[in-house]
Amino acid sequence: MPSSDPVPPLPVPSDGPSVLAPNLKRRLSGVTATIARLVPLQARSIAIRATGPGLPASTPHLPLWRVALLPRRTRRVWHARRNTEMLLGLLLRGVLRKNLALMFTSASQRAHSGYTRALIARMDAVVATSARGARYLEVPATVIHHGIDTDRFAPPGDDAARAALRARLGLPDGRLVGCFGRIRHQKGTDVFVDAMLAAVARHDDVTGMVLGRATDAHRGFERELRDRIDAAGLSDRIRFCGEVPVDEVADWYRALDLFVAPQRWEGFGLTPLEAMACGVPVLATRVGAFEELLVDGETGRLVDRDDTPAMTQALDDALSDPTMLERWSAAARTHVVDDFSLEREAEALIAIYRTLLAEEGAR
User: Fold this and answer.
1) pTM to 2 decimals?
2) For 137, what's the count of Cα atoms within 13 Å in the CB-facing half-sphere?
3) Pfam family of this protein, just one (predicted)?
4) How does the average pLDDT of the chain come out, rounded?
5) CATH number of the 19-147+342-358 domain
6) How far is CA 219 from its chain centroid?
7) 252 phi, psi to nearest 5 deg
8) Which residues pair with 102 in a beta bridge?
9) Are 285 and 188 in contact, with CB atoms under 8 Å apart?
C-alpha cells in the first residue's frame, strides 16, 4: 500500500462501513493527526470511515449523526482512541443495540484512572502504541507502533539538493541541529538550548534551530531561553524559527544533520521517526516510546531524561565524529522504512479489524 499512490478508498457497502474511527475532538491533536494519516490509507483495503468533527476534508468520512441510522445487525468495528469514544461506542452497542466490536488504542505512558480502566475492560480488543505503554494496561494488548509516511518523510537526495533546500528555507551553510515541537519545559527545550550553547562554542560550523511555538502559558519560558542565548551573544547560532505548516515540516527535517528530542515526558513521540526517515540521526531521552524507536549507537544515541550534561556530551560526541554521523544517517532511514512505515501500522490494525468482524459475539 504505497502511501503516495493516488488510490481511491474502497466504496462503502449499502449497509454502511465495516469500520468506524471516531474523532470526538474539534481541535487538532495527536490523536486527530493519527486518524487523518491512517484512515485514507486503510480505506484502500477495507471499508473504513472516520466520524466526528475536526478532520481534514481528505479523510474518508461519515457524519456522526448517520452512525445512529446505520443498520443494527451489521457487524462493525468501532475503533476508539479516547475515553469519550469508548463511552459512545458502549452507548451505541448497549442502548441502540448496534452490533459493534469495540476496539481501543492507548498511547498513554502512565497508569490509567479507574474510569478509564472500567471503559477499557469493556473493549473487545486493545492496542498499545508501545510495549512500555502496554505495561500500564490491566488487559491483554497488542503492541502496534505508530508509523509514518516514508515517501513524504525522505532524504533530500544529494548535497546539491540539500543546499538548494536550505537556501529556499533561509537556513545557513554548515551543520544544522534541530529540535522540533512545542516550546515548553515538558518538551525539554531548555535542555536543547543549554546543550547547543556548549556545542556552538566548540564547533564553529554548527547552528541550532528550534522549530515550533510556545502557547500563552509557556511564553515566559521561551523568553527566558531567548534571553539566555542573547546573553551569550549567540542569537545568530541558535535560532527560533517559529511554527510552519504541517505539510512543510518534512523539508525542515531534510535540512538537518542531527535531530535532538530532549523531552522530559512523552506519550509516544513521532518526531524521532520523522527525522530518521529523512536520514537524520537522533539524540533522544529515554521517555515515551523512544527506547523502542531508536537503536542506541546505530541510529543515534539515548540519554536519561532531564540530564543536560549527558545530552551535552552526546551532542559533542556526535558533532566530533562526522563518520559516525554518516553511518547513523544511513542506518536511520533503513530502520524506519523496514520497521515503522505507516503501511505497516495500517496493515496491523486492519488484521485486528478483520478478526473482530469475523466474530459475532460481543461483550
Assistant:
1) 0.85
2) 25
3) Glyco_trans_1_4
4) 93
5) 3.40.50.2000
6) 24
7) -70, -35
8) 78
9) yes
Return the pLDDT at 361: 52
| Secondary structure class of 79 (helix, strand, coil) | strand
The total of other beta-carbon atoms located within 10 Å of residue 138's CB is 11
Alpha helices in 125-172 (DSSP H): 131-134, 159-169
Write b or e for each residue in 143-153: b if 16 or more Cβ atoms lie within 10 A of its Cβ, otherwise e: ebbbbbbbbbb
User: One fold for both 19-147+342-358 and 159-339?
Assistant: yes
Q: What is the mean pLDDT of residues 305-334?
A: 97
Distance, CA of 47 to CA of 9 (rounded, Å): 8
What does the alpha-carbon distance between residue 137 and residue 33 come to, in Å, rounded to a whole number? 23
- For cell 523496514, the residue is 338
Which phi and psi (to 5°) does residue 125 adopt? -150, 145
Q: Report which DSSP code applies to 130.
A: S
What is the assigned CATH class of domain 159-339?
alpha beta
Contact yes or no for 299/327 (Cβ under 8 A):
no
